[in-house]
Amino acid sequence: MSAVHSNLSGVPFDGIADVYDATFTYSSIGQAQRSLVWKSFRKAFRPGDRILDVGCGTGVDACFLAECGINALAVDCSSEMIEVSRRRVISCKKQNSVELEVLAIEQLKHLYDRAPFDGLVSNFGALNCVEDLRSVASNMARLLRPGATALLCFLGPHCLWEIGWYMVHRNPRKAFRRWRKNGTIACLSDGSTLQIQYPSVRSVAHAFAPEFRLKSWRGIGVTVPPSYVEPLAGRFPIAMRIAKQADLLFGRCLGIRGLADHVLLEFVRDQA
After folding, report:
1. For residue range 199-257, what is the model confidence (pLDDT) as tens digits?
2. Strands 3-4, 98-102: parallel, antiparallel or unpaired by DSSP?
3. Could you give the domains of the chain?
């Protein structure tokens, strides 16, 4: 395991690194949504593969991959997130299978000399914070071997749960914030702000072409609600278990999957 610090400082996610696991990772909603993504990880990758985890956050996915026998290089722009990841990796049974580096998504070109990777993952909206997806896609293509899989989980552009939740709470501004053409400004717990984009699946596929082909996609969080509904979810654990099972079905249904909190896109690196 290594930790290489870049010259990035004061990035927005530094201020929430110490509370992210408590508010999402360990929540019943966070665990339900992540378990759905992990099912796709298990199908896409094999023991011995070398995977790049982009926007790794607190290192939960990297440790999961390591425990599946997969080697992971996990990068994040937040030095504080990487520090939390470092503490998590130390307690991981396969800690030698995880490398950590402070690196912004826009700086992936600095990893060219460590290519090729057998696959790539980016979970729970890290790529929603990127303004130029086309440039990022080009860098990712340079890092992956032909035929490799990239699993990218975005915040979806149309979340039915969000619309209903905030309309009930008489907050139409938040209910329809994902529909704004230029995205929205997210205010984090430390008072910093972040521009969030909500691209459609079609626009993401266009940005990643021609180096990548969109093989399939599914919704993550059609029946499982967004994390801010956790107080309600905690009161109805049986309903949450039912919602988790239902998500396996509805996340694949045409017309419904696009109403999820997140969408998980499976791309294949072109053979050319």
Report:
1. 999 999 999 999 999 999 999 999 999 999 999 999 999 999 999 999 999 999 999 99
2. parallel
3. 3-157+197-269 (3.40.50.150)
Q: Which residue has the tokens 């990487």?
A: 82
Q: Could you tell me if 54 and 126 are in contact, meaning their C-beta atoms sit under 8 angstroms apart? A: yes
Q: Which residue has the tokens 């293509």?
A: 141
| Cα separation, 38 vs 50, whole angstroms | 16
Supply 199's token pair: 């691209």
H or E element at residue 84: helix 79-90
Q: How far is CA 242 from CA 232, 237, 238, 248, in A?
A: 14, 9, 6, 10
E strand spans, 12-155: 50-54, 71-76, 98-102, 117-122, 144-155
For the chain, how many residues are written? 272
Q: Are strands 71-76 and 98-102 parallel, antiparallel or unpaired?
A: parallel
pLDDT in tens, 52-101: 999 999 999 999 999 999 999 999 999 999 999 999 999 998 999 999 99
